[in-house]
Design a protein that fits this description.
Number of helices: 6
Strand content: over 45%
Number of domains: 2
CATH superfamily of the largest domain: TonB-dependent receptor, beta-barrel domain
Shape: globular
Length: about 750
């Protein structure tokens, strides 16, 4: 009996015997890992490479043939035998082919990487603003001379300058808490666009690794670890626009093979803009990155960047003054608006392969300064001296990110476990909001003090992949402490709060053409420390609860579709006033539909389409008075991109935003717009010449609209109405790049 039982066990074990195949996918030129490279076996089982290029497959045969592919690379067919420790697979850059995209069960929340990889490959990026526009459904607006962070719109949110969108670069947070101009202020201008290797995004509050401000979603950029070539680029365009950019390799190809890479990058920008008052916008960026292998199992990455900019601004102009001919659309009322800002970042990350675990440790530091002069109401509040406002701050930001990951086989299933901790400390000095006569004379300080804000967080994330199913369960805990050394009022006690954010995502992939998913989770956006301390009816850490029901679908080899129905409830909306203050907006809800499609018509022509619908509403207000001012309800982007084998490439695209309510009862309207852009390049091995055109059809459009109560010096009373910043008219820019 015992012998029979032993034979049954042995037969069962042989039936389910599995062989593990491990590999690493790297780029031929840079020798850097290719994250999300698709690995498909002849047996039909597939997986993708992780952020280190590593993959692992468990199969019942002792020999396997694998097809390894990634967008923009030539696919490789290889044969592996069981027992090999790890095989290095080198991919060579080639034509973009949507056929190589697979829908894999283990993509989970990274499924948007397919769209981001395609868009970054096909769309020439001219600025850090263009990087934000690559996210489907994300719109931006500039209304203060180009130097301020852009206004962000996503999933029915006017997210101000980042209140509801978490943005990071190489793990370094971009959003500034308790900023002088608004909570979550995210200035992307320190990022040189050509240094970006890839980006990921996610919509909704479903991602354990992303905390504060992740309500509408997150965007995470990763810079290149190595350059495949050095480049010097010169650009010039209308409105005295000029740009010089360079990226230089510092080490040899031999050093790359030994695990060392280093490069520096820099850019200088200048433009007067289309306004009658020249912006004199100047920006200087510098960036450097060094990577070194410390033995066989450790990689150290050190990066540093600095940027500074200054500008003048025409600001927002009352629409009524344009309509009655008092002022030109590109005119100026207060010529003393504008500002300057600078930011310096240092980051060091150590990645360690501990056989069964991967450990990441990152420390970072930022020094930041900001000064802004703004006057959007003119003489509405002070008919004698005017309403000019100065906002000012200096900040030290330091932090730590740690993450431990493990991927293990459980029979035929795979369990991926991730645990992380983080610390962020912001120390802001002389955070100022004051009324001024000119840029130097202060009439009154409304706010002046030092802010100390600390965030300690941790998260766990479990992914169980079993056959066609993937189950993701995660939870995040955030502790925040707020202190405000108010120099105008008696000292107030500090405040602190804790929030726990659970996440659940379920995914079903019946085949490599279709994937269905449901997401549910809780997120939050923190409040400004000053509002927390004064406690003016504002929540400290108002929560967001959301759910998505969606699919990824490849009905034919060259068509990729993502669609999702979604809902989001926000415990408290933040409504920011023009002077940087915040008012409680009450409970809100949003529901909508997102649709993205990418289609390859032939070897050289690609089409893309994004359609985003949203219905944002206040919950506690009566119907007809419950609109969310400036919240987008219908947006769309799309276009065609082409890449010929002879080096000619480019595209034509559009941006469309439907009109929006200007106030809560929709008695005021923010006008919509339809703008068309075009690029055309001729790219060869040693050089590239190109042209970029914004607003090809010279459409008259409002880039930014907002309700303002304004009065000119000679007017008897203030007037409530819409103020606008005009969008760029027809703008052409030429470039010449040299590769070496």
């Amino acid at each position: 009996m015992v012998l029979v039982f032993a034979l049954i066990i042995s037969a069962t074990a042989l039936t389910y015997a599995q062989y593990n195949y491990k590999g690493k996918v790297v780029d031929q030129n840079t020798r850097q890992p290719i994250e999300y490279a698709a690995v498909k076996s002849t047996a039909g089982k597939s997986t993708v490479a992780d952020r280190f290029g590593n993959f692992e497959l468990s199969l019942p045969t002792d020999t396997v043939s694998l097809l390894v592919s990634f967008i923009g690379y030539q696919p490789e067919q290889i044969t592996l035998k069981a027992g090999v420790e790890r095989t290095i697979i080198v991919l060579t850059r080639g034509a973009v082919d949507l056929k190589e995209v697979i829908i894999s069960p283990d993509l989970n929340n990274a499924s948007f990487h397919t769209i981001s990889g395609l868009d970054l490959n096909l769309n020439p990026v001219n600025s850090s603003q263009d990087l934000l526009r690559l996210v489907p459904g994300l719109f931006i607006a500039q209304h203060m001379g180009g130097g301020k962070a852009e206004q962000i719109f996503l999933r029915g949110f006017d997210a101000d300058h980042g209140t509801d969108v978490n943005i990071s670069v190489d793990g370094l947070p971009v959003n500034m808490v308790s900023h002088a101009h608004g909570q979550g202020y995210a200035d992307m201008h320190f990022l040189i666009p050509e240094t970006v290797d890839h980006y990921d995004f996610g919509k909704g509050p479903y991602y354990s690794a992303y905390g504060d401000f992740t309500t509408a979603g997150y965007v995470a950029y990763t810079t290149k670890d190595a350059l495949d070539k050095s480049v010097i680029q010169l650009e010039a365009g209308r409105f005295n626009t000029e740009r010089v950019m360079g990226m230089i390799n510092l080490l040899s190809d031999k050093a790359k093979l030994n695990g060392q890479t280093a490069y520096i990058a820099g850019e200088y920008n200048y433009t007067d803009g289309p306004f009658q008052l020249a912006e004199h916008y100047k920006r200087l960026n510098l960036f450097g990155k060094y990577n070194v292998a410390l033995g066989a199992n450790n990689k150290l990455s050190i990066s540093a960047s600095t940027f500074s900019s200054s500008w003048r601004a025409s600001g927002e102009i009352p629409r009524r003054l344009i309509e009655d001919g008092t002022i030109n659309r590109f005119g100026t009322i207060d010529s003393l608006q504008g500002g300057n800002t600078n930011r310096t970042n240092i980051s060091a990350k150590l990645t360690s392969d501990l056989k069964n675990f991967t450990l990441e440790n990152q420390v970072y530091y930022t020094r930041y300064n900001f000064l802004l002069h703004v006057n959007s109401t003119f003489f509405a509040e002070d008919s004698i001296n005017g309403d000019a406002v100065r906002q000012n701050e200096a900040r030290n930001l330091l932090g730590y990110n740690g993450k431990l990951s493990n991927r293990s086989a459980l029979g035929k299933s795979t369990l991926t476990s991730v645990a992380g901790i983080g610390i962020r400390v912001d120390r802001t000095y002389n955070s100022e909001l004051s009324n001024t006569i000119d840029q130097n004379t202060v009439l009154q300080y409304d706010q002046l003090g030092n802010i100390s804000e600390s965030n300690v967080n941790g998260f766990i994330d479990e992914n169980l992949e079993s056959g066609k199913w993937l189950f993701n369960i995660g939870a995040r805990i955030d502790y925040l402490n707020f202190k405000y050394d108010d120099q105008l009022n008696p000292q107030l006690p500090d405040r602190s709060n804790v929030i726990i954010s659970p996440k659940v995502n379920i995914q079903f992939t019946p085949n490599n053409q279709l994937q269905l998913y449901v997401k549910a989770g809780k997120g939050f956006h923190s409040n400004d420390a000053r509002a927390v301390i004064f406690n003016n009816g504002l929540e400290t850490l108002p929560a967001a609860y959301g759910t998505d029901l969606g699919l990824n679908w490849k009905p034919i080899p060259h068509l990729y579709i993502n669609a999702a129905l979604w809902y989001l409830y926000l415990q408290q909306e933040f409504i920011y006033t023009d002077d940087g203050g915040v008012e409680p907006g009450g409970r809100t809800q949003r529901k909508g539909l997102d649709l993205s499609a990418r289609y390859q018509l032939n070897k050289w022509l690609f089409a893309n389409l994004n359609v985003n619908l949203a219905r944002p509403r206040m919950i506690d207000s009566l119907n007809g008075n419950n609109y969310l001012p400036l919240a987008p309800t219908f947006t769309s982007t799309g276009g065609f991109d082409f890449k010929f084998a002879n080096g000619i490439n480019g595209g034509i695209s559009y941006r469309y935003m439907y009109k929006r309510p200007g106030n809560s009862d929709y008695s005021l309207t923010a006008n919509g717009y339809f703008v068309t852009d075009m690029t055309l390049n001729y790219t060869k091995r040693r050089y590239e010449v190109g042209m970029a055109i914004e607003n090809l059809l010279n459409t008259q459009w409002d880039e930014y609209s907002v309700e303002e109560v304004t009065r000119l010096r000679n007017e008897a009373a203030p007037v409530d109405g819409m103020s606008i910043t005009p969008g760029t008219p027809f703008f052409v820019k030429l470039k010449m790049a040299f590769f070496f």
